[in-house]
Amino acid sequence: MKYCCSFLLLLLFGISGGFAQDKVECWGRYEISLPAKVKGNPFDIELTATFSGPDTTLTVRGFYDGNDTFKIRFMPVNQGVWSYVTQSEIPVLNEVKGRIECIAPGKGNHGPVKVDGTYNFKYADGTRYYPVGTTSYDWMHVAGNQPDQTVKSLELSKFNKIRMLFFVQNFDPDYPEPSMFPFEIKKITKDEKGKPVYEWDFTRFNPAYFAHVEACVDKLARIGVEADLILFHPYDGGRWGFDRMPLEAGVRYLKYLTARMSSFRNIWWSLANEYDFLRELKPEYWDTFTHTVVENDPYSHLCSIHTYTAKYYKYWEPEYTHASIQDQAPVEGFGRAATVKNIYKKPIIFDEVCYEGNMDNRWGSLSGQEYLYRLWQGLIVGTYVTHGECYMDDPKDYSRDFLAVGGTFQGESWKRIGFTRQILDALPNPLHLCDSSWDPYTSTAGENYYMIYLGKEIKPEWAFDLPVKNAFYPRLKEGVRFKVEVIDTWNMTIAEWPVVFETTAPVKDRVYDKNQGRVRLPASPYLLLRITEVE
Amino acid sequence: MKYCCSFLLLLLFGISGGFAQDKVECWGRYEISLPAKVKGNPFDIELTATFSGPDTTLTVRGFYDGNDTFKIRFMPVNQGVWSYVTQSEIPVLNEVKGRIECIAPGKGNHGPVKVDGTYNFKYADGTRYYPVGTTSYDWMHVAGNQPDQTVKSLELSKFNKIRMLFFVQNFDPDYPEPSMFPFEIKKITKDEKGKPVYEWDFTRFNPAYFAHVEACVDKLARIGVEADLILFHPYDGGRWGFDRMPLEAGVRYLKYLTARMSSFRNIWWSLANEYDFLRELKPEYWDTFTHTVVENDPYSHLCSIHTYTAKYYKYWEPEYTHASIQDQAPVEGFGRAATVKNIYKKPIIFDEVCYEGNMDNRWGSLSGQEYLYRLWQGLIVGTYVTHGECYMDDPKDYSRDFLAVGGTFQGESWKRIGFTRQILDALPNPLHLCDSSWDPYTSTAGENYYMIYLGKEIKPEWAFDLPVKNAFYPRLKEGVRFKVEVIDTWNMTIAEWPVVFETTAPVKDRVYDKNQGRVRLPASPYLLLRITEVE
């Protein structure tokens, strides 16, 4: 049964083992495997392949995968016949030619996520994508069954993105040594405490480490989760030194990684987590690293970088497709996240707004309600807010800490993610404030489709009252009939108010109900009103 | 007496009438007047002068001032001897040489305002400058004594910046024709209603119009007010057509204006008011206009551009020295303006946050208290908030509307500006949140100098409680003794609390008073706590 399952997945993802298979689904992956014994460092060999297909020619970089084998991976982006030819200084790797047929994508394959318009995302096939992600830094690097449990938890929770570290995290000095590293080890010595000190050969990679990460990313693809892969992080503290690589080593690593992984349709590049804490890397390195990733990714996957709280980055640079922000302040009140959106004019993801958890610090101790509140403060204005939870039994016991090592969710807010996504998926268009800065409460999702989030306020009723201005949609007119649904975002209920409302003519900037109608509200916080046209 | 006064002012500003005067104060103005009869359009003549002085060489552009006279204006930026030589294709304008001695600046002359560090301003002589400005679009273009009354009002109120339009504003169809225009009139016809329709010669300027603006800017300099000159605006509506000039005409106008006025030490360039409403100008024109101004201003005066509410501009471009923002949302609550500051990493001036007034609209009907509240919400985090007031007796009667035509202030908030500036001027450093996004209430002005704005909240007491983190200053230590002053920003009182506080050791992120001390507060809104070290 297991064998059968793997075989099916192979077909589903269009992963080829060699030349034999010439059909691959759109946004699937085609892999060419070329045996070659070379002199010197095989990781130094330049190998590219040019794929020419319907309306598109793409040149992709190959890579050495160990065992005297070079590989080229390709993600076809249009259906139809593609021909390819390789280029290399090594004769046996040069002028290798072939043809593949790109067929319709399989079920659940919508292609990579792209920026849609100014503020939002869509899959390549045109399906809307609202990112509702979580975070687990080290889940891929944990031993045993835990990674598979993490994938199950993600599937159950309905998160559709995860932020995760490519390099293993050094949680504390007693955190065990990982079983694999991405680079070849030149030498291991011991420090005065008997701990290993590694000397790396940054010019030689360990393909098994990359293959493991790739397998994890493919598992995420199967459950519709985008892999927001964090390429550098400061949580190494010099233990392994991946937070202080020379510039050249960093560039080499990024070129190798993008050659291997650009063909993964669910990959996103996050240059760093808290890049400003990588104090051994010079600030100007980040431009070089960013350019390296963008220039070596022929598919232009989503790309951003993450800073410490409220530091903000130059996300206006064209290399960054969206802003990946750490700052809770913009989602702590009404309309604030809209200001960030208005400034950057790109999709905004608040990737860190503090986490649900029980940690004895200010960033890991939100209640589930507070996270859900922050999530909706972001969502209501058309920005996105990433989840994370860190429940720990003891300051040194990371075993239950999903943020750290994945596994099983312990908290409360994750249970509301599926319901939240239902509300989002029902929208005709992404949310946007109707009248930015003049009315921080009322959002539109199109003509005669409004949402008002009530946040923490508990009030007995809501008087029908909408702005005339409706963002980039036509202004609200007189005589439109609306129903109002009261959505309890915490308790996950939707109750339709039994009376239909009908708009007055505009009174200055607002319209009201002709009968001065009101909706009685339950005495609960975290309510959301959905106000939509009825016949 | 009037003659004597003008003579003194001439000396004070170092304005020369010709070659005779060879001493000019630093950041004063030296003017060379060169008679020349030329063929063709004298405004087409290129004339420059290179001034070489201590450590600096500056090339400035001259201009045709009518009456067969060309002029070169120069603002020396260092004390000492400067020599100059002119360049032109016209022999009589070429190779004119001379020397001037730049002497110490006179009283009240601190030089032009420059950006200081990341978020703030200083005068060229190092004196701190906190912009507390107001707005009067058309004050220069009003007939009679009104402009002089405006200057008196500005002096009385202690505003130190004013936003004002270079081109006259078309308030309504009945607004009278101005007595002068900046361009030569080719032809006047009448429309079907008998109103004049002008055809302009955009290649020929009216020097008298520019001279009038210059005289107004000099009057502002004398009372220490920076002239934030708005170079384009949409409030023409096609009546005179200055909102829809061809690109070439716009560039020509900006080159002429900068040649005439870059030597005015108190000039700031505001490319436009609500640039996005100038719908007849293509978006890309603004890059050209901005580059024209910056490249033709040898002194790099402050430069920005202003948009409609919440639209925000690419103030990260190097040409913009600061952000000139229209948006009330960031100053409607605690810490929000800090987010804007954190993103742009430049000085932030909220140049339009709605206005105090009695207009029947949402932008001109703030109470004086509400404006003062927004002012302090900006100031407390180290951003700046411009004032404006528009009191009108009738929707068509602009005579009392300071925003429109200047004159005399009618409102309440302007009376608090002098007091506000006293508080600012007493700061050892500009304000900045101690712990951005974690504590949106507490600001620092240096080591052991804090300010907390209480806004609209009325509460009986304030328990001594400060963050350990103190922005870029050393962390707050145990055993520091503080006094607390309760400043009523509306009633303009300062009351020192009689008990001295002494800090505990940090308790996580906060420090408290060793005796759990509290300050009893008056039952008033708009209070500000100033918490400073005592011996």
Features:
alpha/beta; 9 helices; Immunoglobulin-like; 535 residues; globular; TIM Barrel; disordered N terminus; 5-stranded mixed sheet; 7-stranded antiparallel sheet; 34 strands; homodimer
In short:
Chains A, B: This is DUF5060 domain-containing protein. Two copies of one chain form a homodimer. With 535 residues, the first copy, chain A, is α/β, with parallel strands linked by helices.
User: Which pair of protein chains has the largest interface, and what are the residue counts?
Assistant: A-B, 27 and 27 residues
| Oligomeric status | homodimer
Q: What Rg of chain A do the Cα atoms give? A: 25 Å
Number of helices of chain A: 9
Helix content of chain A: 10-25%
Signal peptide (chains A, B): 1-20
Protein name (chains A, B): DUF5060 domain-containing protein
Domain Apiosidase-like catalytic (chains A, B): 191-363
Domain DUF5060 (chains A, B): 23-88
Could you please describe the fold and organization of this structure?
Two copies of one chain form a homodimer. Chain A is an alpha/beta fold and 535 residues long. Chain A has three domains: 2-103, Immunoglobulins (Immunoglobulin-like, Sandwich); 113-425, Alpha-Beta Barrel (TIM Barrel), CATH 3.20.20; 432-533, Immunoglobulin-like (Sandwich), CATH 2.60.40.3950. Helix content of chain A is 19%, strand content 30%. In chain A, strands 24, 25, 26, 29, 30, 31 and 34 form a seven-stranded antiparallel β-sheet that branches. In chain A, a hairpin with a 4-residue loop joins β10 and β11. In chain A, 49% of the residues are buried. Chains A and B meet through α6 of A and α6 of B.
